[in-house]
UniProtKB/TrEMBL annotation:
It comes from Faecalibacterium duncaniae (strain DSM 17677 / JCM 31915 / A2-165) (Faecalibacterium prausnitzii). Residues 2-114 form the PurM-like C-terminal domain. GO terms for cellular component: cytoplasm. It comes from the Bacteria. Gene3D superfamilies: 3.40.50.880, PurM-like C-terminal domain, PurM-like, N-terminal domain. One of its GO terms (biological process) is purine nucleotide biosynthetic process. One of its GO terms (molecular function) is phosphoribosylformylglycinamidine synthase activity. InterPro entries: Class_I_gatase-like (IPR029062), FGAM_synthase (IPR010141), PurM-like_C_dom (IPR010918), PurM-like_C_sf (IPR036676), PurM-like_N_sf (IPR036921). Pfam families: AIRS_C, GATase_5. This is Phosphoribosylformylglycinamidine synthase.
């Protein structure tokens, strides 16, 4: 398997977002397992593939290796002959190689040629038959009954053991390694509430369109490895029920849902009993599809989950997905104290113990109607840990407690009621079983006991902390209140300032950034920097110099230029801007034409490496200058953080008040701002510390929950001495209607409006 290449994958995404490119493509396929033989071999019935034309990373591959080599950052496309040159030109514009390697033939055969010799020449009829006909005896064994057993007798004992279970405890330290806000379309953050702790039922994101939209997609999953191991039929059936229930609890209609399955089973061999496991799972999933009237439209399977005597548990993960309205999406965390909480529970089939599908669908309709009418504040599907798990997790995000009113015995609190939904109501519920009410006290009162939620939360958070840490306490730091002298207004006003946004290999925030500037009234232009050949680099340099000369603002967006290795982030951007022609164009913009520059995340890293912040000019950098280095946690961090404006005067912050606070998305691995003490003192004195990370009380802090990278003085952004250049780690461009609905705070920081309006004199 060849190593993947994330910057190239990003360029492929750009190519496939282009209308002119997509309209030429007849068929396409990604290069996964099987390489050329599958990616190209599936595109047409008749194919002539010249393996000598296939571009490769490594020399020495023979024909067979070329035919089957996996390479994740490649796509195969089928084009009309007259479109080939035009398509290659478009790919070149996107800094991609495009090479004709095969032709569609009339004869329905797959013919693969290497060094002039056919090494594969097979009829399509034979390929479609999957080879020789095979038969296998299958035996589905009698399943057993699974019931979770939480150690302890009292409610308190069982709760403490349950919240510390590996299937229930916090996975926040793992989840935050992945960028959850890329594309500025995230409707639900992975963890909700002011404290960002309540796990959500589903992933929800708006569709990626130009402009604004209320249309979003949702996806939820279902799978219980213990239940699947005991009974594959019941396990698969419940996996489907669980995934669809989570989707409905998030504000989607089950009638609009589709399914896709991820299957993974032990190596089957010839034993009928081993073959019986995937058969039973598929029958259970099929019955659920028939019962709910929802189709599975795809999936992936593997029957190779064995190593010596070790087998994977029978696995069928159900993913349910649907299109809905972002305005109707409901999150999982309790919203306020003194809310009524009810349980919507289906009737169970006495033979299988599974929800009756008629009852389940009727309940779905009830929940859908209540959400549509705005009666539901929060909702949580009940699963592995029963009602106890659902109520506990719903309280975490906003530190809200719960008092049980229903007379429910301890053992029933922990029953896995798949298909059931807990609802926090805005008004009285027309349906469901009353469970109790939310409370201001951060306690869980049930079964005659009152439990300290903070103690339970600590057990829940600490279980995986040695493996996936995300907490580290730290002191508060100085609250900086500075002001720099605002630069004079431009000599010549511009009604619609032009913004040039260079896209380097690895840049991934250009679309969001362009949208933010357009929304603010600017005219953004995206320029792809090409570096496949020396001539490409020269041409791109000339194009950037020309574009800077025609623009009022230069914007360096976020991403991972050059893959951020091996010498740290943004090195390629910095090297490009240090070319004499580009350096002089930037100096002319800032020193003679009243221009502005902004760098966010990867762009901030580039500004630091160039010296544009904090010095306002491109200059040599020494060990005594500020820099952005690895987060103290030692890994990538993705979450929302709260920042406060520490200094005004910069045009970028002209629409912000001193001390104002904003919830901003961050996503970086190298965001820790460090500098010698004398430099820090000078930045504070000059009013160049623009923004700081703060806690929920608005205090700058070194606590890792709020200062995710450990920046000194909790610094999130700084400016040049005159405020024309602004660099910050937080992605202020990742904002929009219905984004991050499950986290409180002001998510719209008007820095783009500030920069654009500076030119409207």
């Amino acid at each position: 398997m060849q190593k993947g290449n994330a910057p190239i994958e990003r360029k492929l995404q750009r190519l496939f977002r282009r209308e002119d490119a997509c309209k030429m493509i007849k068929r396409c396929n990604d290069f996964g397992a099987g390489g050329v033989s599958v990616a190209i071999g599936e595109l047409a019935d008749g194919l002539y593939i010249d393996l000598n034309k296939v571009t490769k990373k490594y020399d020495g591959l023979d024909g067979t290796e070329l035919a089957i080599s996996e390479s994740q950052e490649r796509m195969a496309v089928t084009l009309a002959p007259e479109d080939v040159d035009k398509f290659i030109a478009i790919a070149t514009e996107e800094n991609l190689e495009a090479t004709p390697v095969a032709k569609v033939t009339e004869e329905k055969r797959l013919n693969m040629v290497w060094n002039g010799v056919s090494i594969v020449n097979i009829s399509r009829e034979f390929l479609n038959s999957n080879g020789a006909e095979k038969h296998q005896n299958v035996h589905v064994e009698q399943g057993t009954v699974w019931q979770p057993q939480w150690a302890g007798i009292t409610f308190s004992q069982k709760m403490k053991n349950m919240v510390g279970d590996l299937n229930i405890c916090s996975k926040k330290g793992l989840s935050e390694r992945f960028d959850s806000t890329i594309g500025a379309a995230t409707v639900l953050m992975p963890f909700g509430g002011a404290y960002q702790l309540t796990p959500q039922n589903a992933m929800v994101a708006k569709l990626p369109v130009d402009g604004e939209t209320n249309t979003c997609s949702g996806m939820a999953w279902g799978y219980n490895p213990y239940l699947m191991s005991a009974n594959q039929y019941i396990g698969a059936r419940m996996a489907v029920v669980d995934s669809v229930t989570k989707l409905v609890a998030s504000g989607f209609r089950y009638e609009d849902a589709y399914l896709t399955f991820q299957e993974y089973f032990e190596r089957l061999g010839t034993k009928p009993e081993r073959w019986g496991k995937p058969l039973a799972a598929l029958l259970g999933a099929l019955d659920a599809q028939m019962g709910l009237g929802i189709a599975s439209i795809g999936g992936k399977d593997s029957m190779s989950g064995s190593f010596e005597q070790l087998d994977v548990p029978p696995t069928l993960v159900s993913f349910a997905t649907a299109i809905g309205k972002a305005s109707k999406v409901v999150s999982t965390e309790f919203k306020k104290p003194e809310s009524t909480v009810v349980l919507i529970r289906p009737i169970l089939d006495p033979e299988t113990g599974c929800p009756n599908f008629f009852s389940l669908k009727a309940n779905y309709k009830i929940v859908e109607q209540m959400i549509e009418e705005g009666m539901v504040a929060s909702a949580c599907a009940v699963g592995y840990g029963g009602i106890a798990e659902a109520l506990f997790k719903m309280g975490l995000g906003n530190r809200i407690g719960f008092k049980m009113r229903a007379d429910m015995p301890t053992h029933r609190m922990f029953e896995p009621m798949y298909g059931s939904i807990v609802l926090e109501m805005v008004s009285d519920s027309p349906a469901g079983e009353l469970l109790g009410e939310t409370t201001r006290e951060y306690t869980f009162e049930s079964c005659g006991e009152t439990l300290d939620m903070a103690e339970l939360q600590e057990i829940w958070e600490s279980k995986l902390e040695p493996v996936y840490p995300y907490r580290k306490a730290g002191p508060t730091v100085e609250k900086i209140n500075g002001k720099l002298n605002a630069p004079a207004a431009p000599k010549i006003g511009v009604a619609k300032p032009k913004v040039i946004i260079p896209v380097f290999p690895g840049t991934n925030c250009e679309y969001d950034t362009a949208k933010a500037f357009a929304r603010a009234g600017a005219d953004p232009e995206i320029l792809v920097i090409r570096n496949l050949t020396p001539a490409d680099v020269t041409a791109s340099c000339e194009a950037l110099v020309k574009a800077i000369g025609e623009s009022q603002i230069v914007m360096l967006p976020g991403g991972f230029s050059g893959g951020d290795e091996p010498d740290g982030s943004a090195k390629f951007i910095a090297s490009f801007f240090r070319s004499p022609a580009v350096t002089e164009a930037v100096r002319d913009l800032l020193q003679h034409r009243d221009g502005l520059m902004l760098g966010i995340c990867n762009g901030f890293q580039a500004l630091i490496k160039l010296g544009l912040v904090p010095y306002g000019d491109i200059r040599p950098i020494t060990a005594y200058d500020p820099t952005l280095t690895f987060n103290t946690i030692g890994r990538h961090q993705s979450m929302l953080v709260r920042t406060r404006v520490a200094s005004t005067g910069s045009p970028w912050l002209s629409h912000c008040d001193a001390g104002s606070e904003y919830e901003i998305a961050i996503s970086h691995g190298e965001g820790r701002f460090v500098a010698p003490q004398n430099v820090l003192d000078q930045l504070v004195a000059n009013g160049q510390v623009a923004t700081q990370y703060v806690d929920l009380e608005g205090e700058p802090t070194m606590d890792q929950r709020y200062n995710p990278n450990g920046s000194l003085l909790a610094i999130e952004g700084i400016t040049s001495p005159d405020g024309r250049v602004f660099g910050k780690m937080g992605h202020s461009e990742r904002s929009g209607e219905y984004l991050y609905k499950n986290v409180t705070g002001d998510k719209y920081q008007p820095i783009f409006e500030g920069g654009v309006d500076y030119f409207k004199v």
